[in-house]
Amino acid sequence: MSKRTHTIEVWGELACFTRPEMKVERFSYPVITPSAARGIFDAIYWEGIRDTHRIKPYFHWQIERIEVLEMPRYIALRRNEVKGKVPRAASQWMNGTEYPEPLWADSDDETTGRTQRQTMALKDVRYRLTAKIIPKAQFAGPEYYNKFNRMFERRARHGQCFQQPFFGCREFPAFFEYVQPQETRRPPAPFDQHIGWMLYDVFDLRREVVKDGKPFISLFEATVINGVLEVPDFESDKVRKPEKGGV
Question: pLDDT tens digits, residue range 152-194?
């Protein structure tokens, strides 16, 4: 089986890849995280089975390289956010077994009202992302692997996606273009920075079946050299992972 990779160029006006140690007042990493990059590829093409109790993915995307095409620039934003969380009954609302109840933004309840929070976001971002498909064991045959790659390339070339890709927050849309292997590519920005421990992903990418939405936080030590961030494989020892995950 060939190790085929795909490259897309993505851009947008605003982005926020929140550092986990600054959750209340959002402060973005200077570059996109592998988790956010994977989300963009997933938005273009994801294959699997979804039902009420579990999700069975056919493959996952492994980000290999992130190229920074515009120098990171920050912008301070103040946004209205809702304090409350979506209740556990949301799945029953979706199934139609319970009648949905609104989450009031202007409620007098201190736990569900509206609040203003500061965000240090990035502006005018542009990246070139390279990734490959890692099929699950039961879909590792050449016929499945070739099908997955053809489907993604066809969709990406035509600008098709299952949902609008975004940069960290859904209100920051991302636009994309498929990059052909033979195309002349714009050189990365002259950006060098040792970022330190960076969020790799919030899910266990090795999972065959997802039974719940429990987070599985992984980290890696990130360094951008000449505008390029090389991303290690998820299975690599360079990626710090919890000892046990929800698989």
Answer: 999 999 999 999 999 999 999 999 999 988 888 899 999 999 9
- Model's pTM, two decimal places? 0.86
Domain annotation for the chain: domains and CATH numbers: 5-240 (3.30.70.2660)
Q: In angstroms, how far is CA 69 from the centroid of its own chain? A: 18
Q: What is the pLDDT of residues 58-97, one digit of tens each?
A: 899 999 999 999 999 999 998 887 776 777 777 777 778 8
- The count of C-alpha atoms lying within 13 angstroms of the C-alpha of 13, restricted to the half-sphere facing its C-beta, is 4
- Side-chain half-sphere CA neighbours of 117 within 13 A: 15
Q: 218-225 and 239-240: which strand pairing?
A: antiparallel
End-to-end CA distance of the chain: 26
Of the candidates 233, 200, 247, 238, the one whose C-alpha atom is nearest the C-alpha of residue 219 is 200
Strand partners, 74: 122
